[in-house]
Amino acid sequence: xxxxxxxxxxxxxxxxxxxxxxxxxxxxxxxxxxxxxxxxxxxxxxxxxxxxxxxxxxxxxxxxxxxxxxxxxxxxxxxxxxxxxxxxxxxxxxxxxxxxxxxxxxxxxxxxxxxxxxxxxxxxxxxxxxxxxxxxxxxxxxxxxxxxxxxxxxxxxxxxxxxxxxxxxxxxxxxxxxxxxxxxxxxxxxxxxxxxxxxxxxxxxxxxxxxxxxxxxxxxxxxxxxxxxxxxxxxxxxxxxxxxxxxxxxxxxxxxxxxxxxxxxxxxxxxxxxxxxxxxxxxxxxxxxxxxxxxxxxxxxxxxxxxxxxxxxxxxxxxxxxxxxxxxxxxxxxxxxxxxxxxxxxxxxxxxxxxxxxxxxxxxxxxxxxxxxxxxxxxxxxxxxxxxxxxxxxxxx
Length: 397
Prior knowledge:
By secondary structure, this protein is mainly beta.
């Protein structure tokens, strides 16, 4: 083979193997965007922000496209055997900008990692026009590629779980919230939301929401939705070794607790051995009577008709987070605040409405601060509100 023929052959082989561009695809393998080599520079230029798919029918409310935000793979499934769940922050981050949050503990002291819970918001797009109002969707993790009413379906672990060893000061972690979302009827162009987490110091995180979308790319103008999220809750966790679990209905407390700490028998730190959770039983009736003899019978209101929590109150293990406070508020209205035609109320006035249940590492703390007056002018006493039993729960849904 001559030198010229050899060079031509080599050139042909090189061109056959060369890449002249990059295709960006969604999680279904569909091409979302293509970038080609600039013949003048032999470089591939990828803009940091751009209109979605270059579609001029959108109204410019596109947020951050997320083209250069790879999934770092740090969101893990820590399994169900978790302990030492402790609230480190609660509130709401801003979906439209970077929000700094401060944890109550140094990252070095949080155990195995952090879990982040979210709200997800949707703005519908109709014929290229974005709705003014947004709807709230509940995030759920599922392997089923179908919609769930009122929910946003993720096929990544949720809550977002990040190991402490990955939370390095100065490092930014990116977690793509991939999934089927609402499983819209037609989706030709889509982008997952991305959470960026910058670890600013030993306690401070800067969280940024990068907007996602799902569009049908019709000729008459896009239909679909934009999606954003906000962080609402962060807790620590520790992955525990396999621990023998209590059988369903094991009694952890029996008696009459009116306030203060309720110590639970045989419960390990972090509620590691209670099965799927616990059931908290309150006295069946909220009882109102008078110390003065009267011919009128006492007023008895069923607990779950009076208050905004069920009786028993089921607390799943994933929600048994130390420091978490569960408000127990009156559901019934005082007589004076009921409009004509509404259901009759035996409550004349609500004097105090500040009861709550706080979760500790392996116990509960009851605050008893609920007091009412009935139609006969009789006051409820502290004994009217009682926690009488706590049991373990297994196979609870």
